[in-house]
Please model this.
Amino acid sequence: MSTDKLDQTLARELEVFNREGRAKPVERVIEKYIPPKPPFGPRYLIADQANEFIRLNSNSYLSLSHHPEVIEAADAASRKFGVGPGAVRFIDGTFIHHHRLESRIARFVDKPAAKIFNSAYTSNCGLALALSNKKTHWIGDQLNHNSIIRAMRISNIPRQNKGIFKHNDMADLRRCLEEVGPEIERVIVIFDGIFSMRGDFAPIKEIKAVCSEYDSRFKDGVITVTDDSHGIGAYGRSGRGTPEFCGAVPDIIVGTFGKAFGVNGGFIAGSPDLIEAVRQKADTYIYTNPLSVADCAAAIKAIDICDSQEGLSILESLETGITQFRKGLERLGKESIPGPHPVIPLMVRNTEKTHHIVDYLFDNGVLAVGLAFPVVPRGDETIRFQINACHTPADIDYVLKLLEAVD
Model:
């Protein structure tokens, strides 16, 4: 027995991906982190490349992954308890750091309880498994992250118990709610806080207002869920993300420690009964090892930093960099999507030009993400830049000069 026949079939399938332009590029391997050398921020060495690279494609918005206190917290926890939990949570794989992190993130997002997962992706899937039954109806924004789309697909509900509303369109959300059948007992309206490829945000206050009009129609009500993975820590007056920025808090918050906090893992925050239901019913929580104590300790320290005067200073520095880059794009006559978030899209609207700019940036030591046809429709081609707190004015000026020269 061998996989020879299977390999031939898989090779043909992969060739289709390549031919259609949907195949992922070869993964670049980062070999070294180079600390900041003023006036420039940190750089990275990539295997088989001579250049030093600035990362404008990193989710580490607060640049905390190299913070000495975060590293020390992870190291101390590992030395005390080891590097792995050795079991799933309900078979004595729960350590004090897991409880501490759940308590800390719940306080940070102003919810009474929380449950941590290996990622926000598994958090969304676990939430769907915990909340869904045959009388549940899910409604999502058309630009929701893949993890939400996947969660809705695995929720084991009939196809007709799902609705999609046009991006941030309250009239279309109302249409979806109107179409919910009379047999439904609970409706879940789920949306990204920050839409990761665009940097725009969900109007939570308006969404909640629409949902409240229909809440009394259903036995369990209309429940609002925000996946604020790109928002939490990264913006809002005190870094509490999209709910803080919008002045409205959804019923359930899903998030990650792997972006602004610079660590690893995800969470669900909500009522104690919800969190207990997640603990009892979410396969993606029950049947897999939890985060290591190092991840938990590092995440706790990162939240503490964010929730301090130092954190406010980091946010202020991040906002300064965002403003500098956005004003620079405006000065160059470049099109973007307005917003206060560190995700800043450059609307190129041409596939060949998008590839050309991304390649030019790479050749000059800048990492950025290009989205071209057929990944996005023709005319929506984009380059996504992500400003981090570690990016200095000199870094941003350098990138802007490259964008000016590439035309």
Remarks:
- The longest strand covers residues 186-192.
